[in-house]
Amino acid sequence: MKKIPVIMDVDTGIDDAVAILVAMAAPQLDIKGITVVAGNQTLEKTLHNTLSVVEYFGRSDIPVAAGSSRPLVKELQADPATHGESGLGTARLPQPTVKPHSMDAVSFLRETLEKSEEKITLVPVGPLTNIALLISCYPHIKEKIDRIVMMGGGAFEGNMNAVCEFNLFTDPEAAQIVFDSGIEIVMCGLDITMKSYTTMEDILRIKATGTKAGDFCAEAFALYYDRYVNNSRLPGCAVHDAVAVTYLLHPEWIKTERANVKVDIDGTETYGQTVCDFRKGRDKSMDNALVCLDIDREKFIGLLEETCKYYK
Ligand code: BDR
Ligand code: CA
User: Fold this and answer.
1) Rounded to the nearest whole angstrom, what is the distance from the C-alpha of residue 283 to the centroid of ligand 2?
2) pTM more than 0.85
3) Which CATH superfamily, name and number, covers 4-310?
4) What is the DSSP secondary structure assignment for residue 250, as one 8-state letter?
5) pLDDT for the residue 217
């Protein structure tokens, strides 16, 4: 099977950790590296969490490079209320012994893309700071990016306010650079990720896999689940970032629509909103994204269970 070469960009984060687990278990993917950004927690913590996850789950061979410790313009506002003080809720992983790559994230991305004979898919599931820096500093590198399959934004809803999603809200300027870059984007925003939730029953099934990944996910979801059930309209917790990886593995489970997506960086109430134009009469030559709108949730949960079983 021809594998899809990917580089993930994460702000690990509970659902980032699950996304990494799904990607590392997938035979369809060739993970060339993981770059890390500040978002859900400080860079120090998101880097630590990423190293812990790759090492504990047996993939210390994947290079992990540290990226930006803050958004381009705004100050970092981490989200301990959702992801806990550590970033991984109440889950505890052993202290990692593996060290970050000697290059920073942008240099790592540049070198890996330049040296690659084939185009690589980028899978950012945090604020887009690292990706914006990469394409701003090295515009020629865009040719080596197959597409960007990302978690962020939302056509019809927000989670920071009525219209803005956390990753876009954290670094709107970076997101604007990425969406205006001309690179093809698959946007897994809140429209689909809020449909990709795990109920308590699902969490119990995940735990019942009896694997180290099942235990880790159940532990990590404990606070996260309460936060969602108490604060959102969902009957469970949204596993946002794993949806971007799922799109790569099973696009047939996902309903999409092409659109022209712009990021607002001027509005008072809409700063960081992804403004999605689906109108039939729009100038389709301006379309830059495939917007994901719906998913077969049962299949998605099945994939999470299968992923846990992989890590015996
Ligand atoms: C996004 O923000 C973070 O809480 C998650 O890791 C996800 O990337 C959802 O809005
Ligand atoms: Ca994330």
Assistant:
1) 32
2) yes
3) Ribonucleoside hydrolase-like (3.90.245.10)
4) -
5) 98
